Structure formats: C-alpha cells, structure tokens
TrEMBL record:
<dbReference type="InterPro" id="IPR050425">
    <property type="entry name" value="NAD(P)_dehydrat-like"/>
</dbReference>
<dbReference type="InterPro" id="IPR036291">
    <property type="entry name" value="NAD(P)-bd_dom_sf"/>
</dbReference>
<keyword id="KW-0560">Oxidoreductase</keyword>
<dbReference type="GO" id="GO:0016616">
    <property type="term" value="F:oxidoreductase activity, acting on the CH-OH group of donors, NAD or NADP as acceptor"/>
</dbReference>
<protein>
    <recommendedName>
        <fullName>NAD-dependent epimerase/dehydratase domain-containing protein</fullName>
    </recommendedName>
</protein>
<comment type="similarity">
    <text>Belongs to the NAD(P)-dependent epimerase/dehydratase family. Dihydroflavonol-4-reductase subfamily.</text>
</comment>
C-alpha cells in the first residue's frame, strides 16, 4: 500500500466475533485509466470482504454503496428504464479495450469498477449462498466535506476542480 499510495494512511481494524453487519463504502477513486491496476485489486478486495463476512454467522446483512454508474452511462435526453439486473456492460467493454490507457477512459474504468464489483456481490450471493442478505445503494452523488484533502472522493474532486 505504501508504494502505491505513499501519502495515504491505512489502519487495520480487528472485528470482534458477533459483528452485526458489513458496509462496503469505498473503492479506488484514483480515476486510473488502466483497468488492470484499478479494477483487479478492488475486485480481489471485494472477494476477501465477502468471504470474511460469510465466515461470521452473526452478520445478517452486507451493504454496498455503489454508484449509479454501475447501472448506466447517463446520456442527456436519452430515456431508459432501470431494471433489477441492469449493469453497465458498455463501461466494462470500453474500460477493458486494448491500450493505450488514455485520460478519456477514466470514467469508463470507474464505472466498470463499480459494475464489476456489483456483479461480484451478486455472483457471490448466488453461488456461495451466504447467511447474510446483500443490499446495494446506487447514489449519483455523495456530497460531504473532503475527508482527505490529498485524496478527495469522486464528487468532492469534481467540486474542487471546478
């Protein structure tokens, strides 16, 4: 972690037996353009979180804060209907295309990251059949004070860049 994010702080927390739930709130907000460096590590982390939560029988629910980008790419003036099993397949295709990894790909990589994590949550639920319920929340924006000025979140960064 120190090599990839030298200015970041990381704190490991031991969760005692009998935990009441798991909430996954964040993902890579680097807006990296290389899906191998951005998506793959987060997917591995999601798998580890799910496996660890499944080991604790007291966990009734696993809540995921995803993004509306996991469902669709908004196009002004284009109408669409959101359905339960919808995923942003377009972003997955665009993000995993061959290099070069240019700046215009960063939002597709971010959307694909969120989409692929969503797909992994649901795959795990169907195949592993954990004792907990998986819930997802798909906000379009999260507005709050910047938690870490050198690593602002996606919408925080947009406001700062503006």
């Amino acid at each position: 972690m120190a090599e990839r994010h030298p200015a970041a702080a990381f704190e490991a927390v031991l969760v005692p037996d009998g935990v009441d739930g798991t909430v996954h709130l964040a993902a890579d907000k680097s807006f990296g353009t290389n899906p191998n460096q951005t998506i793959s590590p987060v997917l591995n982390g999601v798998r580890n979180l799910l496996r660890d939560a499944a080991k604790e029988p007291s966990v009734p629910r696993f809540v995921v804060t995803s993004s509306n980008r996991a469902i669709y790419n908004a196009v002004p003036g284009k109408k669409f209907t959101i359905v339960a099993n919808m995923g942003n397949e377009e972003a997955i295709g665009k993000s995993w295309r061959l290099p070069p990894y240019e700046e215009d790909r960063k939002w597709d990589v971010y959307a694909a990251l969120k989409t692929q994590c969503e797909l992994e949550y649901w795959r795990f639920g169907q195949e592993e059949k954990p004792s907990f319920v998986i819930n997802s929340v798909f906000p379009s924006d999260v507005v709050s004070p910047t938690f870490h000025p050198e690593q602002p979140g996606s919408t925080s960064k947009l406001a700062l860049d503006f």
